[in-house]
Amino acid sequence: METAHSDPRHAHACPGHATAEADAASTVDMRWPEGGAARVPYRVFSDEAIYQMEQQKIFRGPVWNYLCLEVEVRNPGDIKTTWIGETPIIVTRDDNGVVHAMVNRCAHKGALVVLKDHDNKPSLTCVYHAWNYRLDGTLRSVVFQKGVKGKGGMPETFDTAQHRLQPVRVAMVAGIVFGTFSDDTPPLEEYLGERITAFLKRNMDHPLKILGTHSQMIHNNWKLYCENVRDSYHATLLHTFYTTFKVNRLDMDGGIILSEKKWHHISYSKRATLEAAAEYQDAKVHSAQYNSALDGPELLKAWEGFDDQITHSIQTIFPTLVSQLTLNSLAVRFVVPRGVDKTELFWVFLGYETDTPEQEKMRVMQANLTGAAGLVALEDGCINNFVQRGTHGSADVNSFIEMGGTLAESNESSRATEAAVRGFWHGYKTIMGFHE
Ligand code: FES
Ligand SMILES: [Fe+2]
Prior knowledge:
- The chain contains twelve helices and 17 strands.
- The chain is an alpha+beta fold.
- Helix 6 packs antiparallel against helix 12.
């Protein structure tokens, strides 16, 4: 895969790049409570200074941030806008097929250069004073550089090669484009670890087709979503649709896999026992718990795309990416922090180019399980806000996260554990430098 490994030295020379003083100013001196990753101080969900520190330490730190899917910049001239933390980002594919990422901030006076979600153009032009950039972010031309009728214009010393859109390192795996600001971020597959990379490829390393996208504003700190999506304990308690219709229950075979560094995880379950399969062949799907039936039972008639019997999986990549394959609903989600208590959650629903029309229809139908108005995931948007409100004003109180013990380690015999939640907090406190 072709990637643009931009010269990091230039990033530090760019006007507006964070200085050491700014880094120091945004450091919060906080002790993490005793108990390690099994305790989380509620302060981290509502403290403005910690939020600012995260922008530096995490989003501009040694992590690979989700940028977009490769299919969104499939052709030369394709442009996609996104964010790393609060920083607006442009992803492009140039005429040589190389994918680039850069900050969406004009090198002149800082205006957004690309205003659309996606576009296709031979170059990038800032609307303010029409500075024009190549698709790799280098500056091509400046209007009135030589002045008008010999008067005005840029100084003789002005050199277009000294000004460009601030580059971001790019790497790709399984059709996903990641970016990082930091020179210290390890190579992508090393960052992800072996099992996380392999499972990402299982679900995503196919010719992808975008079936639809949507986004929703959720009224909670971004980390509450990251925590919630790693929380296999809640899934079958809060989401009664899962248990009622046996999509995902804790008594099914399944497990939790944490990456080597514990930052990322996979939660999986296997629905396809003979007994369950027979039940779902039935014209009406009945629930033992609620005696409910679906008018459209075909919603849950999934086909098995893999030979490992896994029918439900949620995978996270620290900090903000989620990949899901729930029955046949394949999607990526990612969160963008919009303030200490506001987060935008984006969903991209996917199929494979090789899907039959019936399979594509099934995936679209099963997209109704998740999303803002879905049958399952709508509760998460609510519950995270309940935590945001419940913890407000309790900066010195800590959560208690000991289901399945206090360690953050894989458990392939049970999902009645908060191990992946502890894995997230282990990563968070490490990268933020919070010590007990
Ligand atoms: S701010 Fe972009 S050209 Fe002036
Ligand atoms: Fe949930």
